[in-house]
Amino acid sequence: MRIMIFRIDGEYGHARLGEKILSRAAFLSGFCVQSFSVSERESETGFVKIDKTPILSKQAEPSDFTLILDASKMSEIIKSCDESSIVVINSGKKMKTALMKKKGIKSYHVDAKAITLDHFKKDIPVIPMLGALAKVSNKISLKNMKTAVELEYGKGNAALEDGYKSVRLG
């Protein structure tokens, strides 16, 4: 297995929470993990690298999986994806840009906002988005993701499961 790189783009705090949960879940899954965040104004990007051997590179590289927590910033985020990227978008409907088609980027969508409003009465999209990631990546089990959510956030497994169950292609 080569290094797998995950990217989480969203509002300040949400991407960092996702990075912490995903890092913990990857560690629980037996991977060596490296994670870091980059903040710009009100947005943030979290990166998580996983491998079976220690990770030495500390630079941001194109991701294998990208979670887009805010679809209004999708066009800018897609520019940094390469052809082999898989994108999961926080949206209740399919979203495919011309650039995604041109690059051949595979995409999924999940209405994470609706899920979190139902469970938390506030918008915390990263939790159901991580559930969706567990399903589409097949690298980290839902069980380990649940444990990580409990350890890092304390609640949210129902929202995580709903994200896992409701992710759709496109």
Quick description:
By secondary structure, this protein is of the alpha/beta class. It has one domain (4-169): Pyruvate-ferredoxin Oxidoreductase, domain 3, CATH 3.40.920.
Description:
The protein has helices at residues 14-28, 74-79, 98-103, 112-120, 126-137, 142-152, 157-166; strands at 4-11, 32-40, 43-51, 65-68, 86-90, 106-110, 168-169. The relative contact order is 0.18. Helix 4 runs antiparallel to helix 7 (157-166). It has a single domain (4-169), classed as 3-Layer(aba) Sandwich (Pyruvate-ferredoxin Oxidoreductase, domain 3). Strand 4, helix 2 and strand 5 (86-90) form a beta-alpha-beta unit. With 170 residues, the protein is α/β, with parallel strands linked by helices.
Key phrases:
170 residues; alpha/beta; seven-stranded mixed sheet; 7 helices; 25% strand
Distance between the termini: 27 Å
DSSP, total strands:
7
Estimate the global geometry from the Cα principal axes: globular
Any idea how many domains?
1
CATH architecture: 3-Layer(aba) Sandwich
Mean pLDDT: 93
- Strand proportion, as a percent range, falls in 15-25%
Low-confidence stretches: none
Relative helix content: 40-55%
**CATH third-tier fold name:** Pyruvate-ferredoxin Oxidoreductase, domain 3
The structural class is alpha/beta
| Sheet having the most strands | 7 strands, mixed
In CATH terms, the superfamily is Pyruvate-ferredoxin oxidoreductase, PFOR, domain III
CATH C-level category: Alpha Beta
Number of helices: 7
Instruction: Name the helix and strand elements from N-terminus to C-terminus, one letter apiece.
Output: EHEEEHEHEHHHHE
